[in-house]
Amino acid sequence: MKPMIGITMGDAAGVGPEIIIKALQHASLYNNCRPLIIGDVKILERAAKLTGVNVTIRKVSEPNDGHFSSETINCIDLDLLPGDLPFGHLSPLAGNAAFQYIAKAVDLAKKGDIQAICTAPLNKEALHKGGHIYPGHTEILADLTGTKDYSMMLSSPNLRVIHLTTHVGLLKAIEMITPERTFKVVKLAHDTLQRSGLSDPRIAVCGINPHAGENGLFGNGEEEEKLIPGIKRAASEGINVSGPYPADTLFYRAVRGDFDIVVACYHDQGHGPIKVLGLEAGINVTVGLKGGIIRTSVDHGTAFDIAEKNIADERSMVAAIQSAIELSPKKVTK
Fold first, then answer.
1. What does pTM read for this prediction?
2. Angle at the Cα of 75 (from 72 to 79), degrees rounded to 5?
3. Does the structure show a pLDDT above 80 at 333?
4. C-alpha distance from residue 166 to each of 110, 201, 264, 267 (Å)
């Protein structure tokens, strides 16, 4: 049976509803999955009208109640928002709703009712004003699943990046990097890519300092203290990992094809190269969640400035759904 992909609506005041409606007009997605929205039917109906898409938004109580075709969009309706919620404006109501959609999706994934979660973007300020103090999706999912060892992986057609640290300041990020963390993230990268079909993924680790420290010329020995022991441990367990390499050339080498994934030390080190390659094709994957829960996402924000203008590009959402299909369990019984 095709995997059921739970798609959370994200912040309803942003472009999430629009890109979901547009993405689910790609009929080829239905060849490989059963997409199920977790959100608000009223908002999806507004988005369908906005985009001019002739589609039925169908409220379902249970995932398997859905009728899966490009003419019908099935939604677990949490009914949390007014139908006239303003697009393009910060809303605590929308921030809370975005959290509740994720919580429902995690519950469905734990029960095996859906095989993967794909998330539309949320707004961190709205999330906080709605009473949920998290840096972002990754940390919410880790908390809801009781996961301690996890990481954010970004993927585009020519580059994959996984992070040692993400939503913390630079000084805190460097403090948080340890040999144990380096080892665990390298192993997460290895295991994730193996599950996706790469038998011996080539993993490269970025340096923390310019020129990866250049034998002590830059920094205070962070590469030797925080990265190299973890790299050596992973290599001793048969993982094809090397580094640390200077970040200013490593991403070029990875795009060229020398490596299958780059381990970035902090948020901007990894996000910058991916986003330069194009927001429309990038996706975000949370790896290491307990219970084997798969989560993918678009690699862009809520874009309040273009909400309700019918110009949002759905290609990242399509790519995120396709990635969720690829990473989901191959044997589905529900």
1. 0.84
2. 135
3. no
4. 25, 23, 9, 4
